[in-house]
Every structure is written in structure tokens, then in C-alpha cells.
Amino acid sequence: MKRFYYLFFLLCTIVFAGYAQQRPAYWKEIQDFKHKDSISMPAKNGILFVGSSSFTKWTDLETVFKEYGAINRGFGGSTLAQANGYIADLVYPYQPRQIVIYSGENDIATDGVSALETLNRFATFFTNIRNRFQDVPVMYISIKNSPSRVKYAEAMTHTNKLIREYLSNYKNTRFVDVNTKMLKDKQLRPELFLEDMLHMKPAGYDIWIKEIKPFLIPPSKDK
């Protein structure tokens, strides 16, 4: 009988381990957002920031943009494809008055896709957003070049160009170029980055704040 229980326990362990392994990347992060919302759901009509680790590590984002009702839903080193895969949990519940996106960098550097494929991924995400929230204002923050990803600079610059051109065909959109603002004499500034030379120090975020804030929609203008 003891052998039976041991084998049963072992089988259950294997099954559950296999189930856990089948979960998509960042599943836990999305569940954490849902749990957080179940305790205190953000007010509707806020500004939703969705994207990858540059938002995840922007720990005071909601405080910086508190007057705008900012909601930070950056998760890990995510891609546009992953953001779209989680769109039902990541975007739809919040009914935002404006959406700010920073994503695409990891599509190139991690997934290894081309600038054109990154554009296609963005277009899919954007279309799904607009299908759900017609004409919702969408801001896209340009992909930043960083010292640790110099070899991807050309592809990232091309992606920025493609997404800028794509958004120019749609109303209520804004492409915000933070990348060139982070350069000096067209060169990268390592002092803006942490030791990993990928993620930013507060000085880098200060540049983002300066570039982003003028285009955020205050609550009073949305009434």
C-alpha cells in the first residue's frame, strides 16, 4: 500500500510539473496583476502603460503620473507578441482613456525577428486594441538603443521608422521619440544606464518623463 501511495504521489508530481511547464512565459506576472486587481481595481478611464521591462522597472511610474490616473502594466522582458497574447487580461479590463506602449525591443533582441515582423506584431496589437476601444488614443514610445544591444541598433532604428509611419495613418495616435533624446552628439550615453547597460537609471527616466508628459491626456480633457 505504501508503494501505491508513493507511486501515486510521484505521478501527481510529474503531472503537475508538466502542467506548470506548459504555462506560457510571464503567466505568473499576469496572475499577479489579476490578483492585485481583485483586491483593488484601478479606476476606469485612467492611462494604461503597457510594455516590457523599461516599464516594469519604472517602479514610481504610477506616482510620477498620479494626476493622470496612471496604471503600470509592464511585465518582464516581454514582447509585442506576448502583450497581444495577454491582451484580454492586460488591456481590456481597464477601459483606459489612453494607452501608452513601450514594447518591441525584445521582439528583436530576444525573439530575433526582423523590423518588419516587429511592425506586424505591433499592428496586430494596435488593431486588437482599437477593435475593443474604438479611437482610444495610443502613444508609442520609441525603442531605445542601449550599450548592451548595439548590434541591434540598426534593426531597432528601422522598427521605430516603420511604426512611426504606420501610426501616421491613424488618428488619435502619437509616436514619441525618446531614443534620439537619450543621445549626445548622436552617441549613446552609458551614464544613463544601470550596470547591465540595458535598463535605465533615474536620469534616463527623467528624459522619458520630459518627452512623454506633454502628450498625456489629463482627466479634465476627457470629459
From TrEMBL:
Gene3D superfamilies: SGNH hydrolase. It comes from the Bacteria. GO terms for molecular function: hydrolase activity, acting on ester bonds. SUPFAM superfamilies: SGNH hydrolase. Residues 54-207 form the SGNH hydrolase-type esterase domain. This is Lysophospholipase L1-like esterase. It comes from Pedobacter nutrimenti.
